[in-house]
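Final report, closing paragraph on structural work. Over the funding period we assembled a curated collection of sequence-structure pairs, and we close with a single example.
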Amino acid sequence: MKPILYSSLSIFILMISCKESNDYKTDIDKKLIAKAKIIHSNVITLDTHCDINVKHFTDSINYTQDLDSQVTLPKMEKGGMDVAWFIVYTGQDSLSEKGFANAYDNAISKFDAIHKLVTDIAPNRIELAVNSNDVRRIHKSGKKVAMIGIENGYPIGNDINNVEKFYNLGGRYMSLAHNGHSQLSDSNTGEADGDWLHNGLSELGKEVIYEMNRLGMMIDVSHPSKDAMKQMVALSQAPIIASHSSARALCDHSRNLDDEQLILIKESGGVVQAVALNAYVNTEKNNRRQVVETEIGKKIADSMGVQWLTWNDINKLDAEKRNEYFEFYEQMNVIRKQKLIGMNDIPPAVSVSDFIDHIDYMVDLIGIDHVGISSDFDGGGGVDGWDNASETFNVTLELVRRGYNEEQISKLWSGNLLRVLDEVEQIAQNIQLKKN
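Its predicted structure, as stored:
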């Protein structure tokens, strides 16, 4: 009987110790969450890259409603996202006068949509900011903040005066290329086959860098080629940013930045906004998951009567057909996410923890003053745990879990980016004073 007694006693002690361990863990989690909530409410959370669909900026369908879009006012309010940089994005098309004209019209339609949101649709809930003082004033008032970034300089065409037009419409950063070489700069996509158009920047692209410095518009290097990026650093009198790029050392994708590039941005005084896009966070993990997701997506597409396209196929479409496909993709993705929720035994998704690994890496390499946060929501962005603006708190929670304090988290969420914006503005004022 004694062995049974000892066995029973051991099990009882083990049960007690496990309960104490679980209670202790629960207490720690509660304390972490409580601490993270305080920090999240104290800091200004700023996401530098949120793509938009102009069809969601109408009187009947707009961001005051909880649409399928990853960023809406209800989602921002629920998740505590304070500042969204809405993106004037134009896909690459032919380098022709017709292509430039269509791209310009597309850009203007997106500027108009953002202005309509803040002036007509929801002026009591969100306001446009063009500098850091605006951000802090609007945030203090309790409203959400909209800012404007330009993804792809293609819409300026060959008319450098359009840079100032876009600045006057509120654009405060611009990348000179996207997926495909523009008239201004080579794109990172040239890396796939070694096919370059300018070997970096074109002569017009170099002039645009000077013009952006003069105006006070931040230079974004997230999509241009490495040679173009290095030339921008050499030419620019002001710090540069990467609005949505992660660390290539952790994820070997041409959209990410290698250590040399990260250090160059630090040396310029700039900031790298780590991006929560699963393929740029962990390609191998994402690829395993994508096998399942693609099969589901194809079945949904077939049921909707739409041909499934690869990203290479999508990039070959003209702007109108590309936008039509993106509209289908958004609808499909909502259905697919619901299907995935009920599925077991599938490869895990790229997570918030994987994303914060990139922040940790870059902070270690270039310092806490040169790293920030972006999502690329509705441009393909989102990871498990931060799949839309309503889940923004989870990023802060994971940062707290990693040991970051409130001052550091404030820098990562907004302080570093706003510092760079201030410095770029100051340099522009100095340039303008010298010319006068």
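The CA atoms of residues 1 and 7 lie 10 Å apart. Residues 1-18 have pLDDT under 50 and may be disordered. We thank the funder for supporting this effort.
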